[in-house]
Amino acid sequence: MPPVPRLIFLTWKVRQIPRAVQRCVESFQRRNPHWTVVIMSDADCLKWLAAKRPADLAWYEALPKGILRADAMRLLWLHEMGGIYADIDVECLRPLDGLAAMLGYGEWLALTRDHPVHERIHFHNTPMWMNDFMVARPGAPLIGVALKMLAGMVAAGFQWNPRNAVMETGPGLLNRALTVMGGLKPAGVRYVPWEVIHPLPDMTNPFEEKEAADAAIRRRTWRGVNPWVAHYWYHTWCSTRNMVLAYSDCLFADRHEAAMERLEPYRSLLGPRSETVGAVLEKLAAQDGPVTLIELGVARSFITEPPPGVDGADPAQWQPGQPAAWDWGAGCFTRVAVETLAGYDFEYHGVDPSAAALDVARTMLRPLTTAPEEARVRAALAELLDDGVLAWAGHAETERRVHLHEQRAAAFLADFDGQADLIYMDHGECSEETAAMHARDAQIIIERGLVKEGGIVLIDDHAHDPEKHLVPKSRDSRRIFEAAGWMIVLEGRQLLLQRPYEVPEYIPRILHVFCDSRRQKAYRAEIAEAWRKLHPEWEVEAWDDDRVRDFIMGECPAFLETFVSYRTDRLRMAAGKLMVLKKRGGIAVDPNLMPLRSLDELLPGLALIMAARYPRDQPEFAGAELVHSGFLASCAEHPFWDGLEHDLRQSQEKQPDTPPDSAFLTARLRDGLRFLSPDSEWPELLDHRAIAASPETANEDAWLSVVPHATLSLDAASIAAPAEDGQISISVMTVERPQAYIHDTIASLRKEWTGAPPSIFAGSPGRAFLDRYEKEGCAVHGTGSEDWERIRSWNVGRKAHWNYWRCLSFPADQESVGRMIFEDDVKFAVGWKGRFYRTLAALYQLHGPCFVLALYSVFEQEGADSRKPGQLFTPYNARTFMGTQGMFFPEPVRRDFAEYIRCYGVEENLMPYDLLLGHYCEEQRIPIYMTLPSLVQHTGKQTTGQSGGSMIGHTSPTFVEDLTDGRQWVSP
């Protein structure tokens, strides 16, 4: 399945975006600089269709121009290209990578419902799936169905009504397509909660909660959620009433645009300070909340040629009534900043020990109230500005928001109670004394934390003409800021520095390793050493069954009843792991996860981390779960676990022993959680290539790798492929039944096998039918009376598990490096042994002794061609593995799988052992292969009933009686 490409698509009638929503459109590129934003006009759409989807062009052009075509175009684009579509009145509020990552494996499209107010008013509380913001993979099935429905409506001569676009081509079409496909899950649709896409209702509608919604819009509080985007309901296609215009004074895009319009006339006056001052004011204007500015050293120099006006405030020098004479590039930041931020919730502090300088600032900020006076000012500035216009705010609130302090900078900084978004350090003249003073003030700023995270410090007179031999004011303070981790943003006449964001650490550095005590008491030494080496300061907690039980009894007594209701240790361990994360926090890992680099870099700022379980670009894993339950990270008492604990209780009551595994966690995520971390509504979902990558898919950015149990504590290079019969042991499992297939199986095996006689395991008390093989040197293992007394009441499947486990676990000879296990109703192809050894040689070269080989398959794998020269084997999908008539296990895999069968087959009897083998290989990332063609054929006509009788007499479609015929089967 293709990933979601980093494409953002928007359309408008023409290439010129309406001014009212221009900042909305720009927000997508500003928040997602590594994404490509595509904006297409109606003409562009026609050209694109002609080039990319000419078959759709005719029915598209049959639609009336305007909104109907726009609705169709967004579907055509997403189906062809994938990515994100957004209406032009949608503002992007935070980076969209996390939203795109929400599409789990098996999901093609992310949709959200309309705001509940709209559903109540317009749709009688019927769910309405929206098309104003969509995230899609290329080829999303639901979009394909919707496009077929549209084309069909055109072909049928449907009478279109653009005023009814919502139902004909918009959300109504998506709802009809969902009904056709049977709902969200069959359609591969992920539900995104409406709060994070549509946090605001359309305020042009009448509704009861309007007062509260109005306050939320004006405060931009989003009602306590942290949305990715916000739709502002511009509605140009159907109405002249729209929310963008109604709230132009407080919506982010319009407010920012107005601020930039006020700043623009000043840019040409600021001279060498234009870039830095402009960048500072743009950043402050982009903030949502209150803005605090501190200017150390206010306006004092107002003529361009000294003396006598430098560092003075003599009105005769700076001409307070003649702005055209002011030195805007040196001393008018006060006026420019306050004017730019007019209409914002801002607070300005001007600090200077000179009372005269503060009087200058007051004069500059005084509103020009009389028309003649304003006219004179505009005329005086006409020569300085291209259009002769300079905006003057004259706001009544200016006096309330501006505070002037007759103090030295150090004294003010020592007493200031709060944090600033900007501190402008313009005090003093360029000298040794000023550089030292700035250094002392910088130390106070850092030690007292006077600048907010992400806030800025602007230092004047950073660079001068070298011939003037002036000491930069920033000479010493720069080093102090950089030593504290501050970043230099711009350098020029002024120095612009930014305080870094201090990312909070929510997830404690505790490693929880959960080990099923029946398989292993502790995780392997080499993995433990890797964790210690990469995480020397971490706390490590090892959890086995007993410790998990004690923990639940001591710290989660309310969960105890649910915990003990699980009937197997494995299920109790899985549920206990989730409760440990809830109470303690940290990282919970399976014992076979090897760290590749320190997780210290991963944790800061995140409260809940999960990982995709399977490669999303491999179609053979279709339908696989999203979450990898072997790796979970969380802060303590995260609200996600509260909801999940509730689900665990309900699940045990309604459907006992539902495993609390990957599928369970994934289902919980799909319920539409909206509260998952202190600063984010969703968990961080990391790609499979970063977490729990298999050795084949891991890259240099991966954090962890799955190490198959079979390779742990093993020098794989020391084990070579078996080359002769004496290096392989054979087990055959049988049971006494009317037709003794075992005799034909042994006879067929002996035609080519020259190694030690097979060990035969009888799964029932009767063993007389095997006497002759014991006389011939075979090791015959019957079922003793004590064993039979223990297993006689078991069902057939569990008895079969027990016998297969005996075949696996019987101790190997010292020379043996692998074991073949056969059921008792197979026959061997002529020439099978030669192909078998050539297959082993190739597989050992690929994987060492860490794979499983099936000599029989009931399936003919797609794309496999046994007639192709050198084609001896093909991968067998673990999720569809079936049939263990003939298997080869390298020695380390045999030992490990024997324990797995004992735990989950004999003691728990979860599923037939062939399916259990598929689960084991999938869990441990051990590849399964099948020989091409099958080297043995199933001959039995009776069934144990494990498959419900449906597989009686199943045979391999690739089996050939004689593999020595060179005309049919080409050897490498």
Kindly report how far apart the N and C termini lie: 34 Å
General form: elongated
Main pleated-sheet profile? 8 strands, mixed
Structural class: alpha/beta
Mean pLDDT: 79
Please give the order of strands in the largest beta sheet: 26-25-24-27-31-29-32-30
Number of strands: 33
- Total helix count? 36
Unreliable runs, pLDDT <50, ≥5 residues? 303-310, 368-374, 380-397, 614-624, 671-682, 945-952
Strand content: 5-15%
Radius of gyration: 37 Å
Structure characterization notes:
The protein is of the alpha/beta class and 972 residues long. The radius of gyration is 37 Å and the shape is elongated. It starts with 6 loop residues before the first strand and ends in a 34-residue tail after the last strand. Helix 13 packs antiparallel against helix 17. Strand 1, helix 1 and strand 2 (36-40) form a beta-alpha-beta unit. It has 36 helices and 33 strands. An 8-stranded mixed sheet has the order 26-25-24-27-31-29-32-30. It has a 7-stranded mixed sheet with strand order 11-10-9-12-13-15-14, sandwiched between helices. A 6-stranded mixed sheet has the order 2-1-3-6-5-7, sandwiched between helices.
